[in-house]
Amino acid sequence: MGSPPSRGPEDYFKPGDWNIDCSICGMKMKAGEAVQNWQGTWRHVKCNEPRPAQDFVHAINTKEMQVPFSQKAGSTFAQICTFNGMSAVPGYALPGCMLPGRTMVDPLDPPTDLG
Predict the structure, then answer these.
(1) Residue pLDDT, tens place only, 22-74
(2) Domain interval for residue 18
(3) Which of 22, 37, 56, 87 lies at a C-alpha separation of 20 to 30 Å from 8?
(4) How many domains does the chain have?
(5) 74, 75, 15, 22: which is closest to 47 by C-alpha?
(6) Three-class SS of residue 82?
(7) Higher pLDDT, 5 or 15
(8) Which residues partner with 19 through β-bridges?
(9) Which residues lie below 8 Å from residue 88, measured CB to CB, with a gap of 6+?
């Protein structure tokens, strides 16, 4: 059948106390020497760790996130340099886009009307 397990350093009689296993290292200890972790498990004092700080983070109240005032966005003009707009040909060239000496244009793209 086999022999019973050998006695360890925690196998002694102490009135009102009993043996438990540490939930981290698995070593035997007396229940009176254990500390309860924030997760509810019992551990050695040396195996216990503090609760993570992220567990205490709270969401911001919606009133704290409100802006004091807002306004509608105005119309914004954004010029886009096209292939014909980069040419130096009058009627096709766009200010800020044209490249001096460039005469190539796309005949399928009509001239730009800036008026």
Answers:
(1) 998 888 999 999 999 988 999 999 999 889 999 888 887 777 778 888 888 88
(2) 9-49
(3) 37
(4) 2
(5) 22
(6) coil
(7) 15
(8) 30
(9) 98, 99, 100, 101, 102, 103
Question: Which one, of 3, 13, 10, 1, lies nearest residue 34 by Cα?
Answer: 10
Q: What is the pTM of this model?
A: 0.44
Write out the E strands in 1-115. Answer: 19-21, 28-30, 35-36, 42-43
Residue 101 counted as domain residue: yes
Side chain identity, residue 19 = N
Q: Tokens 């007396």 map to which residue? A: 30
Tell me, what amino acid is at 107?
P
Residue type, 60: I
**Which of 90, 80, 86, 88 minimizes the C-alpha distance to 111?**
90
